[in-house]
Amino acid sequence: MMESFFPYSVWDCWWLAPLAFLLDTLFGDPKFPWPHPVCVAGRMLHCLEAPARRWDTPVAGRAAGFICLFVLIAAVGFAVWLLLVLPWLGVAAAVYFAWAGLALDSLVTTGRETLRQVEICSPDQARSAVSMLVSRDVNMMDIPLLRKTLADTLSENFTDAFFAPFFWLLVAGPVGLWCYKAVSTADSMWGYVAEPWTRLGFACARCDDLLAFVPARISVIVLWLTDRFFQAIRPGARLWKGIWPGFRAVAEQARGMPSPNSGWPMTVCAWLCGRRMAGPAVYFGILTHKPWLGPPESSAADWDKASLLALCALLRWGGLCGALLLWFVCAASAIV
Questions:
Q1: What is the pLDDT of the chain when averaged over all its residues?
Q2: Nearest Cα to 269, choosing from 239, 235, 289?
Q3: Largest separation between any pair of C-alpha atoms in the chain
Q4: Residue 153 CB: number of other CB atoms within 10 A?
Q5: Please, which pLDDT band fits residue 235 given cuts at 50, 70 and 90?
Q6: At 287, phi and psi to the nearest 5?
Q7: Could you list the residue ranges that cross the membrane (predicted)?
Q8: 2 pLDDT more than 70
Q9: Distance in angstroms (rounded) separating the CA atoms of residues 288 and 285
């Protein structure tokens, strides 16, 4: 049954997910003459906004947002499935959509380039660079706060950019991956608690919360295992200087975040790097009070260039560790 509706899942195609991960690591996002599938999904959602606005009332607004999300998921999922079942071209389409759905290299590369601009450019240019990655207001931020904001978004997006897509690629093939990417794209465009997205974005945010629920929590184990592995092979040259507080302490902090999923990778990264994340932030002119994640202020160091580079390394190696772990578990279950 899974093979019929979700071709190229790990249970009937063991090689696709490792190949997609390798292509993403070596080449980053695929660059071809046609638009990236995420851009296509974004344009589709943009076209749905105008008719949805006609029904954006206190009574019908959430229903309109749900209908738009359903149409987007159905259109994206069916288009990918249709290309996968084409004779001869189906395999090439599967490789392309699996590769295009993973963005670990893009996340780390963009993070390092933004950090370079924060370190060498003027404060205004640094704010402009960070503003391209976050939805919060950066106009009043100084350089230390820009570094922390960059650390926040890199660790938070570990799940959205790579770990959840890879999880759904294994479970449901490129069709499942791109259904998730459609939801994630909709959440990034509409999923805000502030107006004018309070009602239209409700379904997008809740669906994204649901689909990333399991991957976000597995990411804690994956990043912790990455740290343990490096301690074992390089005990005298550990990249991450934080102290592990235990899974219970991480879970308690992560559950305090407004988003059900973002707090998990952020909390583990904050503790492993020995720095703080989250805290109060301004979104669309409104001050949002979020809890601080990581060690207490008295024992936490400030984010600097070295610690951000270490965070990028943690995410890259954590992606490799997580990909191997998830692939092995799923492949082993197929054999059993």
A1: 91
A2: 239
A3: 62
A4: 20
A5: low
A6: -75, 120
A7: 63-84, 91-108, 162-180, 308-335
A8: no
A9: 9
pLDDT recorded at residue 140: 87
The 3-class SS string of 141-192 reads: CCHHHHHHHHHHHHHHHHHHHHHHHHHHHHHHHHHHHHHHHHHHHHHHHHCC
Distance (Å, whole) CA 198 – CA 200: 6
What letters, b where the CB count within 10 A reaches 16 and e where it falls short, cover 108-136? bebbeebbebbeeeeeeebbebbbebbee
3 state SS of 10:
coil
Task: Calculate mean pLDDT across residues 129-147.
Answer: 90
- SS3 for 100-115, per residue? HCCCHHHHHHHHHHHH
Which SS3 state, helix, strand or coil, does residue 245 take? Answer: coil
Tokens linked to 314: 């943690």
Domain that holds residue 136: 2-335
Q: b or e along 23-45 (b: 16 or more beta carbons within 10 Å of the residue's beta carbon)?
A: bbbeebbeeeeeeebbebbbebb
Distance of CA 168 to the CA centre of its chain: 13
What letter represents residue 323's amino acid?
A
Q: Residue 45 pLDDT > 60, yes or no?
A: yes
In this prediction, residues 149-176 reach a mean pLDDT of: 95
Q: Distance between terminal CA atoms of the chain?
A: 17
Name the H helices within the chain: 2-5, 16-27, 37-53, 61-84, 89-100, 104-120, 123-131, 143-158, 164-190, 202-211, 213-233, 247-254, 263-273, 305-335
Q: What is the distance between the alpha carbons of residues 318 and 51, in angstroms, rounded to a whole number?
A: 42
How many domains does one find in the chain? Answer: 1
